[in-house]
TrEMBL record:
Belongs to the VTA1 family. It is found in: Cytoplasm; Endosome membrane. Its main location: cytoplasm. Residues 248-284 form the Vta1 C-terminal domain. This is Vacuolar protein sorting-associated protein VTA1 homolog. The keyword Membrane applies. One of its GO terms (biological process) is protein transport. Gene3D superfamilies: Immunoglobulin FC, subunit C, Vacuolar protein sorting-associated protein vta1. GO terms for cellular component: endosome membrane; multivesicular body.
Amino acid sequence: MVMFPNLNLPPSLKPLQHYLKAATEQETRDPVIAYWCRLFALQLGMKLDKKSKEASAVLLPIMDWLEKARTEMHENEAVTNDLVAKAHLENHAMKLFTWADTEDRAAHFNKNVVKAFYTSGIVMDVLETFGEVGLDISEKRRYAKWKATYLHNCLKNGETPIAGPPTDELELFSEPQGNAYGGETKDYQTPFAPDQGRTGWPSVPEMNQTPTPAERRQPVTPAYEPQAVIPPYVPVQPSPSMHQTPDPEIIKKVEKYCRFTMSALNYDDVPEAIKNLELALRLLKTGQ
């Protein structure tokens, strides 16, 4: 594989660092991922700054590397065929996401889980090379980036994270402010920013890797801790009040539980979805 040059990114091209670092991490592990990450970085760089001399000193070497790499991998359909390439990237992203999500739900909190979540989100960004991503990928990308930041901050501050998706604040699933290319935002920080003194990212974990005892933390709560005790379901007899328009505040709460239901289904958590549907139904029937 042709060597990639060392580049000094000017401020205007700082958002490229996420994809170039991901490419470096995958250089020997999966050259196809490295290729598409750098192509995505080039496309982003052309949008951000293609006129300054500092930007040209970065973009031209990337362009030259891509041309040589494409020639070298001309027989690899995951480079020459967009459909095959898209499937390759999606499979890689989902493999990382599934591993990280399984470890997180089992309360196995460590840097490898943070890295897997974060890298899966970056590769899902790169999928935009082939057009707009679907809702499933978009939701998982949002969650992966949020979870990477959340776990990183907890581990950094010596706190024990809560396993699994949040249940009380839907806002935690909101897309970080800024563009979809991983630029700096006020709500989302890259766990491995250069100013933290790192020379590179931790290795992407092998799927059978076991965290060390020092890295593993004991769970303090289950993956989904019920917010309210749901009493056994008892059919409610129809009453005249049930045919009236519910109070707007009740409607607002019902909508919230329905959104929680959809969020839980996005991550295949059927018990949580059932719990929130029952809460919504009970509110509509009883107002309580």
